[in-house]
Write a structure and sequence with these properties.
The protein has 217 residues and is an alpha/beta fold. The chain contains six helices and ten strands; from the N terminus they run ββαβαβαβαββαβαββ. A six-stranded mixed beta sheet has the order 4-3-5-6-10-9, with helices on both faces. Helix 1 packs parallel to helix 2. The protein starts with 13 loop residues before the first strand and ends with a strand.
Amino acid sequence: MTKRSLPSNASVATEGQDGRLIAPAATRNAEALCELLSQWTPTTGQALEIASGTGQHVSAFARALPGLNWQPTEVEPGRRASIDAYAADLPNVANAVALDATAPGWHEAFAEQNLIVLINLVHLISWPETQVLIAETAQALAPGGRFILYGPFKRSGQLTSDGDQRFHDALVLQDAEIGYKNDEDIVGWMTAQNLTVLKVVEMPANNLAFVAEKSGT
């Protein structure tokens, strides 16, 4: 993954107790994401979270869906330590491992996943990196496996709130290759990768969640 120059509010986390980092955004959206996963994901099998960040999400997901065996991943060592601290008492969460999901070929090490979850990353990477990530995710899923992609997106090429416009503009100012992706482009690329988009769910704070399933053949 290319090291990006991001605005200060793009990936905020403060230090908590016992090595745990705290991201306000993760605190705010964990409950809504757990509800989403409970409605749309398998209840048993192997689950991979890409870019697990602080670990707040995967620990909440593991409690909400205890029948899944979760594998968190993260490129930054400090955040992997935070993930492990959050998951220390959860038997269904493996130790966090390094994964750059924008690099070709990673699906080979994470094959036959029943669920892959990605929260709040694609606006921080380029479109070509997003294409690689989705293509690799499709290959890593088992037949019938689900992919949940969540974050801020354009709708039909348009930014739909003043807050989204400001954040997108700040991202592009720092790095012209990043910023909000278009919902139609995401659906089109998922479809091209043998993923059926079952639902695009409106989420709190003007976010979207794409629920996709890999073909059973």
